[in-house]
Amino acid sequence: MNIVNLSKIAWKAILLNKIRAVLTMLGIIIGVAAVIAMLAIGEGSKESIKENISKMGANMITIRPGAGMMPGGVRDLSSMQTLKLTDYEALKEAAMLKAVSPLVSGNGQVIAGSNNWATSIYGVSPEYTDIREWGLERGAMFTDEDVDRIAKVAVIGKTVQENLFGTDENPIGKIIRYNSTPFTVIGVLEEKGESTFGQDQDDIILAPYTAVQKRILAQNYLQSIVASAISEDQATEAVKEVTAILEKTHKIPEYLDNDFNVFSQQELITTFSSTSEMLTILLVAIASISLLVGGIGIMNIMYVSVKERTREIGLRMAIGATESSILLQFLIESVLISITGGVLGVVLGLSATYFVSTVIGWPVSVTVFSIVISFLVCTFTGIFFGYYPARKGAALDPIEALRYE
């Protein structure tokens, strides 16, 4: 008997017990749907992380003070004062960097007329917008001359503009007061949106670092230095060059840890992507338990099916059916149940990812790989868990099978 005929017989056997077949498929359906959804969410998260970090400047390199510390770590006051303007001047000569900017910042209240808003002010050089790949919606960026003369000029983000001037009023040329220090608005930044960490990147004021250091913070050290590598591919080499330059300017012996940290956007992307991958693997592993349960359900129902159809098996053998055809018949039935459950699971999984994307708003990315793997797993599950019951049916003695009540 050929495979086509065996498939027809297997399909008729499934349709005779529709409810039982559907209940058997549930484990496979839920398992496949969960795996596809989890992979889509995990892949979407990775792409979202890459996109958001790249928005901060794909080639950006950040230098922070502190020995062996990453951003967010607890530092004492002395460890936060290791970066100086001399470091910034030295890095301007680096061959692997196309732009460098010091960075000092503070938080406070900014006032314009009768409106006020709590925001952050960043003291930077004119190259900062190039490093962050940040354009201006209107006006212009301050110049090196403004930095040298400690000019009280500022470029504001969209959030600051909307809260101080509204969406219709042109803020160029207007005076804002930051902690009682007046600044003239000369530009408005293009909208950036939220960062990877959920911070509003548009809630910001940029001003010459000299003005922020002397007129607001009264400090001579830098909180960080940001730079841009010549290209994304050369970011690693740029990090090595920056580290070598700062080790020289800080006169750090080889046996001591550096009192600064240098890291690129690629390192941040790699770190967050690795964390996302680990979480995805964990979620997929948990979701795969449903596939295991579904496989056990298939084995159980196929074993019951063999018992119920013992006389049928005996009759087929009596009229010439071979063990291999009996084995193949029940194996095909098992695979059909599994693959049908897989198809329904894919439909449910795609529907779930669509719901997560449109209703909840989470980033998702469905790959063909996840769907192909789901089908392969379904087929393997049907064969693996269906083989033992099918083998039991094929090994029945024809005479004993015909006598079975």
What does this structure look like?
This protein is of the alpha+beta class and 405 residues long. The chain folds into 2 domains: 3-52 and 270-403, no CATH class; 83-258, no CATH class. Helices cover 55% and strands 18% of the residues. The strands form 2 sheets. It has a 6-stranded mixed beta barrel with strand order 3-4-9-6-8-7. A hairpin with a 2-residue loop joins strand 7 and strand 8. The protein is elongated and about 105 Å long. It starts with a helix and ends with a helix. Residues 68-78 have low confidence and may be disordered.
Layout of secondary structure:
Elements lengths: L2 H14 L1 H38 L4 E6 L17 E2 H7 L5 E16 L2 E10 L3 H4 L4 E4 L4 H5 L4 E4 L1 H8 L9 E4 L2 E9 L14 E5 H9 L3 E2 L1 E6 L5 H15 L10 E5 H44 L1 H9 L4 H38 L7 H27 L3 H6 L2
Parallel strand pairs: 4-9, 6-8
Antiparallel strand pairs: 1-11, 1-12, 2-10, 3-4, 3-7, 3-11, 5-8, 6-9, 7-8
Helix pairs in contact: 1-11, 2-9, 2-11, 2-12, 3-8, 9-11, 9-12, 11-12
Put simply, the count of helices is 13
Count the E strands: 12
Evaluate the radius of gyration.
33 Å
Task: Using the alpha-carbon principal axes, give the shape.
Answer: elongated
- Helical residue percent band: 55-70%
Largest sheet: 6 strands, mixed, barrel
Order of helices and strands: HHEEHEEHEHEHEEEHEEHEHHHHH
Distance between the termini: 27 Å
What ranges have pLDDT less than 50 throughout 5 or more consecutive residues? 68-78
Strand content range:
15-25%
Class computed from helices, strands and strand pairing: alpha+beta
The spatial strand order of the largest sheet comes to: 3-4-9-6-8-7
- The domain count comes to 2
Mean pLDDT value: 80
